[in-house]
Design goal:
By secondary structure, the protein is α+β, with helices and mostly antiparallel strands. Strands 2-1-11-10-7-8 form a six-stranded antiparallel sheet, covered by helices on one side. Strands 4-3-5-6-9 form a five-stranded mixed sheet. The protein has two domains: about 45 residues; about 120 residues, Tumour Suppressor Smad4. It is about 35% helix and about 20% strand. It is rod-shaped and about 105 Å long. About 10% of the residues have low confidence. This is FHA domain-containing protein. Pfam families: FHA.
């Protein structure tokens, strides 16, 4: 079978074989470069789209996980250790319960113990930077003037962020940290960690507060070494 004739221009005929081959190679290289750049642009656009889809899916999954955790927490009561064996005081409509505490374990307010003990006339405790709060976190500019509150209702202690600037963070049932939704109750469980501004607190029985403080001090000492 005869080969197809090669079409040459006048300019091609004036070239030497070496010049012609160099020109053809240069033109081919330029075409390949353009094609490669087009592929890179196409793949880059696809990568950005895929990354956005994955990021949106991750955000949605995290929000769904936080909602599920809060829903699970709201369905489980915090059962105080002595409620079953403590008699009901005369004139009271509710049995007495153990006192709990927010114990500072890291940050500006490490070592502080804020006692939370429900009474007939005391079921809410405010938390914030100013002295008007029940639990004052002064000296921390990341804490809002009125940052959050703890309340006691139906045998549960609940934490609520009051629209603070920097938010309130706590652990969920799996130990992962999550930011509380503003104005929405979060049921506190023993050993949950709660962060306001630059300080982290541990929610525990008040009878364990001194031990928790000592453990936090020991841990801080090891970290400094």
């Amino acid at each position: 079978v005869a080969a197809a004739p090669i079409s040459l221009t006048d300019e091609d005929r004036q070239m030497t074989v070496e010049q012609y081959l160099k020109a053809a190679a240069s033109e081919r290289a330029a075409a390949l470069k353009r094609h490669g750049e087009e592929l890179i642009e196409r793949y880059d656009a696809e990568f950005k789209r895929a990354r956005k889809v994955l990021r949106d899916a991750a955000v949605e999954a995290q929000a769904r996980s936080a909602d599920d955790s809060e829903r699970d927490d709201s369905e489980r009561d915090e059962v105080p250790r002595k409620t079953a064996t403590t008699s009901e005081p005369s004139g009271s409509s509710e049995p007495s319960v153990d006192a709990f505490a927010l114990v500072g374990i890291r940050g500006v307010h490490q070592g502080k113990i804020f006692k939370v003990e429900p009474a007939a006339d005391r079921k809410t405790w405010s938390i914030g930077r100013t002295a008007e709060n029940d639990f004052c976190l002064s000296g921390d500019d990341e804490v809002s003037s009125v940052h959050a509150k703890v309340s006691f209702d139906r045998k549960q202690f609940k934490l609520q962020d009051l629209g603070s600037t920097n938010g309130t963070f706590t652990t969920n049932g799996s130990g992962a940290s999550c930011k509380l939704k503003s104005r929405k109750n979060h049921v506190l469980k023993v050993d949950h960690l709660v962060s306001f501004g630059g300080s982290t607190f541990k929610w525990c029985y008040h009878s364990d507060a001194v031990e928790v403080t000592a453990q936090a001090a020991k841990m801080a000492s090891r970290t400094q070494k």
